[in-house]
Request: fold
Amino acid sequence: MGKKLGLGSAVSTVVGLIVATSCLVSLGSGFGMAGTAFILPLSIAFILNIFVAFSFSELNSIMPNVTGGLSQYTLAAFGNGVSIISTLAAYVVCTMLAASVEAGMFGLVLSTLFGGSATLYSLLLMALLLTINILGVKSYAFLQNLTVILLIGSMATMAVLSFFTLTSMPTIAHVETPSVTGLGNVVGLAAIGFWLFIGVEFILPISGDLKNPKRDVPLSMILGLVVLFILQVFLGVGMTKYVSLSALAGDMPHMVFAESLVGPWGKYWMGGVTILAGVSSLNTIVSSCSYILCGMGQTGMVPKVFAKTNKKNSPFVALLTLSVILIGILLTGISTTKDIQVLILSASCFWLLSYIVSHLDVLVLRRKYPNRERSFKLKLFGIPQIVGSLGSIYMVWNIYPEDGTGTRQKIFTIFGIFLAVLVVYAIAWVKLVMKKPFFAAEDIDSIIEKDRALNENHLTEDELADREVAIPGAAAVLE
Reply:
């Protein structure tokens, strides 16, 4: 058994999982559009993500150590149909859009520093990561840890230098009027702020490696969010002191800021960190999404071909499928243009949808299993879940200010098309292939036992049923 992680490591994991290059873009965009008033929607997003942490902490306490996370929580609350939609929306569609942004930023940075085609750089990175993952290379842990240290360290250093104006570079003498003004419009930017905290629940898959998971799962999520909020406020305000608001609202605000803060070599500093962050984040996204699809293939929620693994135990069918989707997005050029913000906010819509489902899962499971033991439960009459759900709906509806550029329409078009496809797929798959009721929830204990049996024996549901004699109780688990 490996060494157990303490609270400090858990907080570092939360922070490292959330921060990516796209966060720096969103932070610059938010402060570029609203100036220091962006602190208000950033605060709202912070509070709503605290509520998300509350909900996932309770769900984890009622169904500890299940590998499917949201998929299995929702299966217990609403059944296969909603589970398929919410899981694919949050952890496949959303992360594919986010991954295209990371790949796009990687290409843009290399193109800016060395010239050449940004799209070509992005495609070469995708080819490299696909090869590494299919071969089952597991040497990325060191690179990912190094990236987190460099990225968080760079953000913290730049936050202090800029907030307290400690460099010799000139500051902005006159701050221009923000393009987004008025309380309603500024609050509407909360969706951009929300992206800066998304992913807090990714601590759950490693909860079994924590020394004190009952305490450290909720505490690490909350402390991680607090650390990020403070860091982003300091860094965002510091950005406005060295870079014009119009430049911050541009394509690569983090690169412009780094150069404005410390001079010409700043773009190489931030460029190097961005490249490492892009490699690490994209590798994590592609790898984790492929295993999620593999797990859904095991349980029959997607075609069983996705459950196939090679000799290196890599889910190669899922990897190839996701890579083809990503390459398709990259070839459109949308992820290496000013439309990067469109992809980020489209992804936010899907993640917000999954967070609404997670809040509803808590309320439904409280009603269905009122006496089930929970190591974490806040007796606040469901207020965090209700406010969190309503806040998420508001952010989706006001995903971007109406500024005459058509950005809001592009976001809703992408969101609407993908969501329609997911709903049609879920209905057809549950009814015609799984042959189960769309909203028939499964018993919690059955889900937990099935998850244990599937993962201990590396089987699909059909294989588990076929091995009833070898695995006592298999048939009962599947009923």
Observations:
- The radius of gyration is 22 Å.
- Confidence is low (pLDDT under 50) at residues 468-479.
- The longest helix spans residues 80-114.
